[in-house]
Amino acid sequence: MQKLTRIVTLSVALLMISGCNYFSVYKRDLPQGNLVNKGMVEQLQPGMSRQQVVNLMGSPLLEAPFDANEWDYVYRLDKAYGDVEQRRITLTFQGDRLAGIDSEGDISGDIRLPDDQGVGPSVEGTSDERESPIDNVTPDRP
């Protein structure tokens, strides 16, 4: 009987712990697309050539498949523990010249990205200054 009581108690405890979200999975902010800010959009002028637009904004994320005269610059920031922020700029061309600029989302504010966008987690005991393997070599003496 004691064995059955222990098993039931352990089962109930595991069931209660599994429902808790205290030990959750680590999440990161996920930026995707072309980073578009207010300064870039303000510099766009009707009549600019496609090359001038590429120099200013970069390559478009999307070109309309049925209309090569429409470029889309989309930026989406999926915050790990918050909302999703999305911006979209649609540029319309007539021939080789910029004709129209449409925007969606709040372009007025800048998006602040975290500074620690390195690859992988930081390892304790390491520094940013890396020693060159050549510095550790002692010259061979005959």
From TrEMBL:
InterPro entries: BamE (IPR026592), BamE-like (IPR037873), BamE_dom (IPR007450). One of its GO terms (molecular function) is protein-macromolecule adaptor activity. Residues 127-142 have a biased composition (Basic and acidic residues). Part of the Bam complex. Belongs to the BamE family. PANTHER family: OUTER MEMBRANE PROTEIN ASSEMBLY FACTOR BAME. This is Outer membrane protein assembly factor BamE. The gene is bamE.
